[in-house]
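Aim 2 progress. For TetR family transcriptional regulator, the working sequence is reproduced below.
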Amino acid sequence: MGIAGKKYIELFCINEHCSLMQTQKEGIRKIILQVARKEFIEKGFKDASMRNIAKDAKVGLSNIYNYFRNKDEIFREILSGLLSAMDKVMEEHNSPKYISVDIFSSEEYMRSQIDMFVKLIDNYKEDFKLLLFKSSGSSLGNYREEFIELQTQVGKEYIALMKEKFPTINGGVSDFFIHTMSSWWMSIIGELVMHDLSHRELEDFIREYMEFGTAGWKKLMQVKD
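Predicted structure tokens for this construct:
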């Protein structure tokens, strides 16, 4: 076998070794996250112990920092799916398809919103509990207040966009009312995740909430049939 052939085999073996090492690292990282989730759920962020996480994951305490810089980074990684889902909800809220008076009477719109929120609660129930009730001491400790502020701004922009497109509607809804409705919605999410509702009960509640809210906003914004 020529020199070129030997070098190819050596390179192949090195690449295979690197691939195996990467797979092992990803496996350890996944175990750390699984163990940390259990620790956070049981104790909350503030009282969760990196020492316990390392012990239960069978990783040396110093070695765990080769995977995560600190406890906060682990916490945020665990909640990354929920955080992205919530960001997406806000990003889509004022999309052109929703700047329409048809949303006040469209069963298709109602169904899509019910499905979206039911899926959100179903998929991230434990994550919501961590985020809303057990994140004190983390960089997400003020998430509720920050999200309410964001939702308030998005709500104000939504009404302005509706007023621009439909000049006859009432665009003078007070900022404090929008803020209060945003706060109420976060409280509702908290109630939903803390109660053991069946899928059907959750769906029925979301429909009730949507129908109640839609009728109220329609009246408040003076949208004509």
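The chain has two domains: 3-73, 79-220. This observation will guide construct design in the next reporting period.
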